[in-house]
């Protein structure tokens, strides 16, 4: 038998098989066939993974471009048009580099630590709803790789595993700087994980569910959570910076003190994996922030995307909306990195345990009480409900910023001192700064202030520095 | 049980048993802790197969994500010397005691039959996995829940008191 004779009938057979495996059905209902579900999931897996890796590579370039823009430079612009091929060049360079393993390092832990840092960051994207469901002739395909009923808990569980990578990297390299970095990172991540988790409890209280789809739907119905739960969003934002080890919380790799922190001994592609993991974590936190507080894929000021039949156009539009929201937060991460100085370690711990955790816990009580009160008053769960919460948030925010924060974080530290004491200190600090040639750097003043001010080890923020400079 | 389900069950069960054996036979406490994390993941997989995704997620969140991280953190601080020079904590007495307890548990497992266990009704399938857990936790088992919370609180306060005492002395 020749091959040409048999192929058409075989092709027909295969096609017949395919139509029984992947039956056509109503495009507005989830597919009933297990095979359709499995194939759709595999395709989503491949597409999301590819786009994600590409996105993370582009983020490294974006970070350098943003930093260049902030510092009035051009940034990488030699490799490819506008430097777009720079990540490829970096990747190739890292692959070619020699991999060094310290003689006394724990071999297996040293090898798996970079993987443990990277995999959780990537895994969390599996449950994020990226757009409204896509209608196909084979059924309605949900636009998250796996829309779990416990999506939010899955995300929290997996992202809490990222700390293993850093801890083991520092411990297994048998290097004191690496160990110090990993100790800092584990203490920091454990501390801020609690504030992070607690800040999202109000979101779950409003949604009444832990599925991310339900949370997005609730926001489309009631208005975005950033309006009704502003304080929770702010706590989440600060904790997200700490969880991703980004400035102003990048103490685990504080290069001025610890060489490079937990990845001091790493080289080549293993080092690169930690770098990728950092950007992957940033992308995950940005995506999570969009989903929990900024309505996920919901397009603002219209109900067009939430009502009626699902269409392909709606899927594309909502996908673009979600990408835009995530992009804004990614830019915020970079903007803050090139703007703010690093916290001191005791400041970090005071902020985490002394301010953010009590604030988050108190806020849960306030929101729970307010929800009960509004329900008792008969306010319908909708826009009026959110507006009442917004008013409450503005009140709490005003109290926190103008009364609770007196002389702590945002206002200048001088707000805590009396007028006489302030005048005395200004006179004292005016003398050395006029003797120094030119404007003293912020760092020397901060150090001088810290040594002068031993009696007040509380948070001496940037406010003190600017205050001293202007006077 | 479909063949697919059966395959998954034995996969996770073997993973759990294998990782547990490696956990008790490792000399380095950090490796042992990591194998225990592996056991937690395998158990979590089994919970998903029992249609209990909430328990599965919380299993990973609490045990792998919180308790074991703190455990590794402490082990790292205690284990700063060269690992091969450290004394093995697993003395002969501890090994015998662990063996006896293990055998007792195994005998228990053999004695227990499915028929002798109290039957539990299947919960109706819902979209919201939290409500059924919350309902039974805060109505039927409220007293046990509150007592457990107080126990944990006492433990935390005790830890803080101990830490303060050492710093002051």
Give the CA-based shape of chain B: globular
The first-level CATH class name of the largest domain in chain B: Mainly Alpha
Unreliable residue stretches of chain B:
none
Low-pLDDT sequence parts of chain A? 434-445, 447-471
> Could you give the count of β-strands of chain B?
0
Task: Please identify the structural class of chain A as seen in this structure.
Answer: mainly alpha
Structural shape of chain A: globular
Can you count the helices of chain B? Answer: 6
Largest sheet of chain A: 2 strands, antiparallel
Please give a handful of descriptors for the protein shown.
heterodimer, A: 471 residues, mainly alpha, 2 domains, two-stranded antiparallel ribbon, 18 helices, 2 strands, 1% strand, disordered C terminus, B: 169 residues, Four Helix Bundle (Hemerythrin (Met), subunit A), 6 helices
Helices and strands in order:
The complex is a heterodimer of chains A (471) and B (169).
Chain A: H1 3-21, H2 34-70, H3 86-96, H4 107-123, E1 134-136, E2 139-141, H5 151-159, H6 162-172, H7 176-207, H8 212-222, H9 225-228, H10 230-243, H11 255-258, H12 268-293, H13 312-337, H14 345-377, H15 383-404, H16 419-435, H17 442-452, H18 462-470
Antiparallel strand pairs in A: 1-2
Helix pairs in contact in A: 2-12, 2-13, 3-12, 4-6, 4-12, 6-7, 7-8, 7-10, 7-14, 10-12, 10-14, 12-13, 17-18
Chain B: H1 3-25, H2 29-49, H3 53-78, H4 92-111, H5 130-138, H6 142-168
């Amino acid at each position: 038998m020749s091959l040409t004779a048999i192929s058409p009938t075989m092709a027909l057979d295969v096609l017949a098989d395919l139509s029984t495996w992947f039956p056509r059905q109503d495009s507005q209902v989830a597919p009933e066939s297990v095979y359709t579900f499995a194939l759709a999931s595999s395709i989503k897996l491949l597409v999301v993974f590819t786009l994600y890796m590409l996105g993370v590579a582009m983020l490294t370039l974006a970070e350098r471009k943003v930093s260049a823009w902030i510092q009035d430079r051009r940034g990488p612009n030699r490799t490819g048009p506008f430097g777009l091929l720079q990540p490829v060049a970096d990747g190739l360079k890292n692959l070619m580099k020699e991999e060094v393993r310290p003689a006394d390092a724990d071999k297996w832990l040293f090898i798996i630590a970079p993987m443990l840092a990277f995999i959780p960051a990537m895994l969390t994207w599996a449950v994020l709803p990226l757009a409204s469901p896509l209608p196909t002739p084979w059924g309605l395909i949900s636009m998250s790789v796996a829309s779990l009923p416990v999506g939010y808990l899955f995300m929290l569980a997996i992202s809490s595993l990222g700390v293993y990578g850093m801890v083991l990297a520092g411990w297994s390299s048998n290097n004191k700087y690496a160990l110090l970095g990993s100790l800092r990172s584990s203490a920091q991540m454990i501390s801020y994980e609690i504030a992070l988790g607690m800040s999202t409890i109000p979101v779950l209280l409003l949604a009444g569910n832990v599925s991310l789809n339900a949370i997005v739907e609730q926001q489309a119905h009631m208005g975005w959570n950033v309006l009704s739960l502003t304080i929770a969003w702010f706590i989440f934002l600060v904790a997200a910076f700490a969880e991703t080890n980004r400035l102003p919380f990048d103490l685990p790799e504080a290069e001025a003190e610890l060489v490079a922190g937990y990845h001091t001994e790493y080289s080549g592609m293993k080092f690169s994996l930690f770098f990728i993991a950092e950007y992957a974590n940033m992308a995950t936190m940005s995506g999570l922030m969009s989903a929990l507080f900024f309505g996920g894929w919901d397009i603002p000021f219209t109900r067009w995307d939430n009502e009626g039949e699902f269409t392909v156009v709606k899927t594309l539009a909502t996908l673009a909306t979600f990408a835009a929201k995530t992009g804004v937060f990614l830019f915020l991460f970079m903007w803050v990195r090139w703007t703010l100085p690093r916290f001191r370690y005791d400041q970090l711990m005071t902020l985490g345990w002394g301010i953010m955790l009590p604030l988050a816990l108190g806020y849960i009580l306030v929101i729970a009480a307010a929800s009960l009160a509004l329900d008792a008053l008969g306010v319908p769960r909708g826009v009026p409900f959110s507006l009442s919460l917004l008013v409450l948030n503005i009140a709490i925010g005003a109290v926190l910023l103008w009364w609770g924060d007196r002389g702590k974080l945002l206002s200048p530290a001088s707000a805590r001192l009396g007028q006489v004491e302030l005048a005395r200190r200004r006179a004292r600090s005016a003398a050395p700064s006029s003797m120094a040639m030119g404007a003293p750097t912020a760092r020397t003043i901060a150090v001088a202030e810290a040594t002068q001010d031993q009696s007040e080890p509380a948070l001496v923020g940037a406010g003190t520095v600017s205050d001293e400079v202007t006077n | 049980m479909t063949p697919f389900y059966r395959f998954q069950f034995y996969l996770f069960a073997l993973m759990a048993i294998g990782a547990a054996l490696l956990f008790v036979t490792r000399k380095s406490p950090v490796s042992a802790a990591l194998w225990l994390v592996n056991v937690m993941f395998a158990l979590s997989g089994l919970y998903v197969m029992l249609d209990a995704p909430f328990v599965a997620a919380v299993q990973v969140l609490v045990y792998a994500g919180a308790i074991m991280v703190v455990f590794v953190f402490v082990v790292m601080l205690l284990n700063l010397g060269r690992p091969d020079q450290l004394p093995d904590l697993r003395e002969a007495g501890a090994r015998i005691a662990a063996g006896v307890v293990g055998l007792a548990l195994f005998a228990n497992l053999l004695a227990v039959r499915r028929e002798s266990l109290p039957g539990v009704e299947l919960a109706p399938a819902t979209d919201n996995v939290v409500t059924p857990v919350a309902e039974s936790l805060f109505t039927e088992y409220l007293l046990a829940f509150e007592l457990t919370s107080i126990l944990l609180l006492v433990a935390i306060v005790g830890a803080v008191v101990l830490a303060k005492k050492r710093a002051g002395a």
